[in-house]
Amino acid sequence: MTTVIERPGFLRSATGGLPRPFWVLFAGTLVNRLGTMVEPYIGIYLSQARGMSIAMAGVVMTTFGLGSVLSQPFAGWLTDHFGRRVTLTGGMIATAVTFVILGYTTSVPGLIIGMLALGVFVDSYRPASQALVADLVSPEDRPRAFGLLFWAVNLGFSIAMVTGGWLVSVGFTTLFWVDAVTCLIFGVLVWRAIPETRPERSEATPGSFRDVLRDRVMVAFFLVSLTYAFVYLQAYTTMPLAMTGQGLPAGAYGLAMAVNGLLIVIVQPLTNTWLSRKDPTRVLAVGFTGVGIGLALTAFVSSTLGYAATVAVWTLGEVFTAGVAGTIIAVLAPAHLRGRYSGLHGLAWSGGGLLAPLVGTRLLEAGPQVVWLVVGGMGLVAAAAALALGPAIRRRSAV
């Protein structure tokens, strides 16, 4: 007699009903993020291994940001024009090759060109990945699917941060090779196990970025996302400077941010199914509010424990935002333009990545209270804007 072992009810509700290709994408994303070791340590690599000044390292890293800005619209076009699978696989292979070349490049011009190329390639998978989920997963299951991918990204990145810190002592070249191999594994998994899902194009619906920019709801959502990205990324750009500026050791930032990874890995799977049943714009507004309040509270702390407490507050807000943007884009985008819509959303994050350090550091110079209260206020503005967009997005989802 065969014994059937059923998954507990929680696991069934959290993971059941999603197609096999989605789980391939989930596994590839997790593997890829387990190898994310170069980006967090790139500043240290440039200054220590390549002997650059802080100013020159900043110039080199800025080219990475410029590449990222170019990446998302271009990858969105590739996703719609050539297909999801070829874009994701091609982007991962190009990223792997770039990592290997960068690991052995010593000249400043070579490093600048390499970092620009890395910025273009490293996140080019995002529009294709979002379009794949929208193509593969039914509308009612998309919030849960996007939430699971968010969890995979954060679990992998949390482990990579710890592992990368240990491997740095072995040598920076090892980090480049680990990142390259995990990118290659992701690309091969997608090519071998995920079918192409791009809808057939026709002369009646060729599609272009002009169509995306004519969508006033999507453009408004882009502006909301840009505002939130600027707010959220202060935790990764301005916060470490604020902490060291208050006399805390460099390691204090890592200890405080460990709370972020721990809470996401534990809390997000427990809330994913429940949140997926709620209206996405209201969930997003609650998340933006939590992140804004958490960052505003940073203005009133000066110890490692205090910073860790504020990280816990805004992380709970971040949990609410998990995967919601992907769900909204899947509602707004026609099937043949899903790549371009996702690319425009990715551009919001790339733009936020450029603006966050430029503006955040200027606000920090005016005072730590100034930067965090302004940033917190902008988080509340983003929340209000998300609520204002809710009726228009709900009308689109009902069509």
Structural overview:
The chain is mainly alpha-helical and 399 residues long. The chain has two domains: 18-142 and 160-196, MFS general substrate transporter like domains (Growth Hormone, Chain: A, Up-down Bundle); 210-399, MFS general substrate transporter like domains (Growth Hormone, Chain: A, Up-down Bundle). The protein has 18 helices and no strands. It has helices at 9-15, 20-34, 42-49, 54-81, 84-103, 108-122, 125-136, 142-167, 172-193, 209-214, 216-232, 234-245, 250-276, 280-297, 304-321, 324-332, 338-366, 368-397. It is globular. The chain crosses the membrane at residues 52-70, 82-102, 146-168, 174-194, 215-233, 253-271, 283-305, 311-332, 344-364, 370-393. It comes from Planotetraspora thailandica. It holds the Pfam family MFS_1. Residues 21-394 form the Major facilitator superfamily (MFS) profile domain. It is a multi-pass membrane protein.
User: What percent of residues adopt helix (DSSP H or I)?
Assistant: over 70%
Number of helices: 18
Radius of gyration: 21 Å
Q: What would the principal axes of the Cα set say about the shape?
A: globular
CA-to-CA gap between the ends? 49 Å
Structural class: mainly alpha
Tell me the CATH topology of the largest domain.
Growth Hormone, Chain: A
What are the segments in which pLDDT stays under 50 over at least 5 consecutive residues? 1-7
Strand portion, in percent? Answer: under 5%
Element-level helix/strand string: HHHHHHHHHHHHHHHHHH
Mean pLDDT: 88
What's the CATH architecture name of the largest domain?
A: Up-down Bundle
- CATH superfamily assignment of the largest domain? MFS general substrate transporter like domains
Query: What is the class of the largest domain in the CATH system?
Result: Mainly Alpha
Q: Strand tally, please?
A: 0
Number of domains: 2
Sheet of most strands: none
